[in-house]
Amino acid sequence: MRAAGFVPLLFVGFTMAAEPITLAVTDLQSLGVFPDQALAVAEILRTELIGLPGVRVIERSQLARVIEEWSLTTAGMTAGEAAELGALTGADYIAVGSLSALGETYTLAVRLVAVESSEAVLGETVTVGTTAELPWACRDLAKALAEAIGAESGATVVVEVEPTARPPEVVSLDFYRHGDYSAPAASFDQAETEMVVWVLNLEREEAGPEEAHEVTVVWTAPDGGVRWEEVRPAAFGEGENTLRVIGGKGYTEPGTWQAGEWRVQVKLDGAEAASGGFTVE
Length: 281
Known about the structure:
Layout lengths: L8 E7 L5 E5 L3 E3 L3 H16 L4 E3 L2 H10 L9 H11 L3 E10 L2 E10 L4 E10 L5 H20 L2 E7 L6 E9 L9 E2 L6 E9 L7 E10 L5 E11 L5 E9 L9 E9 L2 E10 L1
Parallel strand pairs: 2-4, 2-5, 3-5, 10-16
Antiparallel strand pairs: 1-8, 5-6, 6-7, 9-11, 11-14, 12-13, 12-15, 15-16
GO cellular component, one term: outer membrane-bounded periplasmic space
Keywords: Signal
Pfam families: CsgG
């Protein structure tokens, strides 16, 4: 089964006048997240935008200097206030927004304001399940901002989405009683079992450069409660196209496992990748 949630590479081309469009991106308001996280995500978004031809991104230091000189604040900024800040920096457009956390999800919300008209020409949100996915969310937003700028300015914007290498495939998910690796098992004797070990085999299409992923394994007990959650790094070495990831949970004494059917869900980089289970008798 293929994992979902990977963001494609983005190539954006502009056909426009010699003068580039100037864009300012304010620091993001932090809602339920650490301020440093919001600052880091805003900087990632600026970096994604800097790579777009025909767009000049105002440096954060220049933006901060104007905010300080004019005693402005970006928290809860209206479209008119954003346009005022954009005009003071010489920007054609200004992007303002927030990074928020709710439960186990993170949402990046951005509004694009045209400085000349003081109108919000784009409102875009991207929600992800882990902080590791936020850079990909920034890439999605950079694409949306590029398209909006092109539509507003009359520039011709060509956005070609070229998929990255397909995400790794889960070949198998097997379970073993710790100490007995002769063959995978679908059931375990409660009186003899201390730890159950899972073995996840992954395969990518081609052997290429190093490629890092994150595996999350959630154990659900027969009573329906989540008992454990494990996070494991999963890194393909250079030239490798197969990978084995191993983990496990259990108790120090046999006889402690809850009898019944256990379910194990596997996520790869935050996206559901596989599920399996076993019975404790």
